[in-house]
Each structure stands twice: as C-alpha cells, then as structure tokens.
C-alpha cells in the first residue's frame, strides 16, 4: 500500500482511539469552563458596556430608527449580546487551538511512537525553543505570502486555491518538523523533507481544506446567532479533531519514511509502497549463491 494512503487510513483509525478522543475533548472542556466562568462574572457588565456604546453611536441611531420604521421595535437588547458573542468567539477559538497545539501534538506523537515505532531510535534534539522558532519563522513567511497574494483573491477560482496552498505549505513545514524533532537528526530531517516534499505538501493542503469545516458549520449568520450555544462547541470540537487527524497523518508518514531511510531502503518515488517497512519478513529471503 502506498505510504501516502497507508498513513491516511492509519491516521483515520487512530482518531477512534479513546486517548485521541479524550485529547480532542479536553481543550474544548477547558475553554468552555473558562468561558462559562468569565461569563458568570462579567457577562452583564460587558453587555451593558456594549449597549452604552451603541447608544452613543450615531450610526446605530440611524440603523435603530430604520428598524423601528420597519416594525422591528427596539432590538438593542438582542444586538448587544450578539456583538459580544461575535467579539469573544475568535478569542475562544484561538485559545482552544493553542491548547490543542500544547497538549495534543506531543501526546499524539508519543501514541504513534509507542504503538507503531517502539524500536525507532530517538536521535533528535527535541528542543522546545527550536521548534517554537521554526514554527514562528514559517508562520511569518506564510502570513507574508498571504498578504502578497491578496490581489489574486479577487479572481474567483484562485481564492479557493491560493490560501489553501499557503496554509498547506505551513502545515507541511510545521507539523513535519514537530513529528521528526524527537526522532530525526537535522540531516535526516532535511533529507526527508526534500525527498517527500510533494506528498507532505498534499497532506498539508488536504488538512487545510478539512480545517474549513467549522466555517461551513458557522456559515449561516442567522443559524449561528440562534444556535450559538450548540454550534460553538461543535465547531471547536471539529477544529480539534481535524488538528488531531492532521498530526496523526504527518506523524505516521514521516516516522515510516524515517524508519525506511535508516533501514537503507533504496530511494523510490514517495507515492510507492515501503514494503521492507511494512513486511520485515521479506529481508529474510536467502541470497542466491555466487557463480563460480
């Protein structure tokens, strides 16, 4: 089975592992608990502050007068909480993703290494500072590329292609590095990223498209406003599950490729199978006798 597809189905199967499911729910539970505590103590004051800001706004005076003429009545009591929800939602999402990155990635790597690659020697530096600098540097480059590509977004087909390519590149650079940081030396990491650049980039792009799933859940503004208590947790859980699947896919791929590299498997196109890794018994075939 090709390495690309093999790592895909293994990542999908590992998403059903109880430890992965618990890890995907943990950041959600933490963020909801924090949000509930902050809402309990500060919700009323925050809504009152937004209502006061609306009353002082000339734009809102025009909009509210137009709504009254349409028979909408005084909607300030609805708009103020809705604005607060829309302002807080990005902070909740970012906080959940940070927790996912801190809690899930190392746990996923340990799970795959323990269950599938227990004999794979750890030769990496495993430097938190180095990994953070690598992630920061590549993120800055990705943001710079996004800014430069903004004019291309005006062309309808390209807006569906260019941003996912950039985010896919970022996923490939950051997640591959994180998965190899503990096990691979610097030279091994460079070799693998060079040899398997296109498959890893494809994994990153696919995971980038999967990461848009919560946006589909939140696409309808009306539905989001009415069902916020249900859709926000659902969207956050989808984010964490996609992140877990992405980390699993990259980890399975690069660790299998690293094991093949160390076993001296002749270099082949990345899309072909790595039979000596998947079937070690093939190495036991006796060699043919030398001719006299």
Explain this structure to me?
The protein has 292 residues and is mostly helical. It has one domain. 76% of the residues lie in helices and 0% in strands. It has 13 helices and no strands. Helix 5 runs antiparallel to helix 7 (162-180) and helix 7 crosses helix 9.
Quickly list its features.
292 residues, mainly alpha, disordered C terminus
| DSSP helical segment count | 13
How far the N terminus sits from the C terminus, by CA atoms, comes to 39 Å
Q: Describe the sheet with the most strands.
A: none
Shape: elongated
Mean pLDDT: 76
The share of residues in helices is: over 70%
Helix-strand pattern: HHHHHHHHHHHHH
Radius of gyration, taken over Cα atoms and rounded to an integer in Å: 25 Å
Query: How many strand elements?
Result: 0
Structural class given helices, strands, pairing?
mainly alpha
* Low-confidence residue ranges: 266-292
Question: What's the domain count?
Answer: 1
Estimated share of beta-strand residues = under 5%
């Amino acid at each position: 089975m090709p390495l690309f597809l093999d790592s895909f189905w293994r990542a999908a199967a590992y998403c059903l592992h109880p430890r992965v499911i618990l890890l995907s729910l943990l950041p959600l539970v933490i963020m909801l608990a924090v949000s509930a505590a902050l809402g309990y103590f500060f919700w009323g004051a925050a809504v009152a502050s937004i209502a006061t800001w609306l009353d002082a706004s000339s734009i809102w005076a025009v909009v509210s007068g137009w709504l009254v003429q349409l028979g909408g009545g005084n909607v300030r009591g609805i708009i103020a909480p809705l604005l607060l929800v829309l302002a807080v939602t990005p902070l909740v999402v970012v906080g959940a993703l940070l927790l996912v990155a801190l809690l899930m990635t190392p746990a996923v790597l340990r799970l795959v290494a323990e269950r599938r690659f227990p004999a794979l020697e750890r030769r990496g530096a495993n430097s938190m500072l180095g990994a953070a600098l690598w992630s920061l540097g590549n993120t800055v480059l990705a943001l710079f590329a996004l800014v430069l590509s903004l004019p291309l977004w005006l062309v309808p087909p390209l807006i569906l292609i260019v941003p996912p390519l950039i985010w896919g590149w970022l996923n490939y650079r950051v997640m591959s590095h994180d998965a190899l940081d503990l096990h691979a030396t610097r030279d091994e990491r460079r070799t693998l990223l060079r040899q398997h650049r296109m498959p890893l980039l494809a994994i990153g792009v696919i995971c980038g498209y999967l990461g848009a799933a919560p946006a589909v859940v939140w696409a309808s503004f009306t539905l989001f406003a009415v069902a916020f208590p249900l859709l926000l947790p659902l969207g956050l859980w989808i984010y964490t599950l996609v992140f877990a699947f992405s980390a699993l896919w990259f980890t399975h791929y690069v660790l299998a490729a690293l094991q093949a590299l160390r076993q001296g498997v002749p270099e082949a196109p990345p899309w072909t199978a790595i039979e000596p890794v998947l079937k070690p018994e093939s190495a036991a075939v006796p060699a043919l006798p030398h001719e006299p």
